[in-house]
Design goal:
144 residues; globular; disordered N terminus
Length: 144
C-alpha cells in the first residue's frame, strides 16, 4: 500500500463525484478551459428527449458552454442530489442566473455521466428550462 498522499490521489482520481464537483466549480467560475478538462477529448453528449442535439468532442462542447457563459454571465450550478454505480453518475442539477437581457435563467434536470479516471467520457442530458406556469398536468400527461 502506498503513502497516504498516494492513496488519497488514487481515490480522488477514481471517484466520479470529484469530476462532478470539478464541473460544478468550472461552471460557477465560467472557466471554459477548466470545464473542458473535465471531459475526455472524444466524449459523447446525448439529449434523449432531443436526439438531434447529440454531438461529440470538445469543439461543440466549448461552443455550447461559451455561448451559455456569454448569455448567462452569472450562471450558478447547484448539485441537488447524486447517485453512483461504478463509473456512472446520476446528477440532479439546478442552473440559475440572469440572461444578458436581464431575464431570469432557470434550468433543472438530470445528467447521467460515464466517468473514467478524472474525466467524463459520455453524458446524457435531461436538462430543461423551468416552465413556471402552463397548461398543467392534464396536457403534460397526454401531450395534447
Amino acid at each position: 500500500m502506498g503513502s497516504k498522499a498516494e492513496v488519497m490521489e488514487m481515490h480522488t482520481k477514481s471517484d466520479p463525484l470529484v469530476v462532478i464537483e470539478r464541473i460544478r466549480q468550472a461552471i460557477n467560475r465560467r472557466d471554459l478551459d477548466a470545464l473542458a478538462e473535465c471531459f475526455d477529448a472524444n466524449y459523447r453528449s446525448e439529449f434523449p428527449a432531443h436526439p438531434d442535439r447529440a454531438f461529440g468532442g470538445h469543439d461543440q462542447m466549448r461552443a455550447n458552454w461559451g455561448r451559455i457563459f456569454r448569455t448567462v454571465p452569472d450562471i450558478e450550478a447547484v448539485v441537488l442530489s447524486t447517485a453512483t454505480d461504478a463509473g456512472t453518475v446520476w446528477v440532479e442539477w439546478e442552473w440559475t442566473g440572469t440572461y444578458a437581457d436581464s431575464s431570469p435563467f432557470l434550468h433543472r434536470g438530470v445528467t447521467i455521466q460515464g466517468v473514467r479516471g478524472d474525466r467524463t467520457e459520455w453524458v446524457r442530458l435531461y436538462m430543461e428550462p423551468v416552465q413556471a406556469s402552463g397548461p398543467g398536468i392534464g396536457v403534460a400527461a397526454t401531450g395534447h
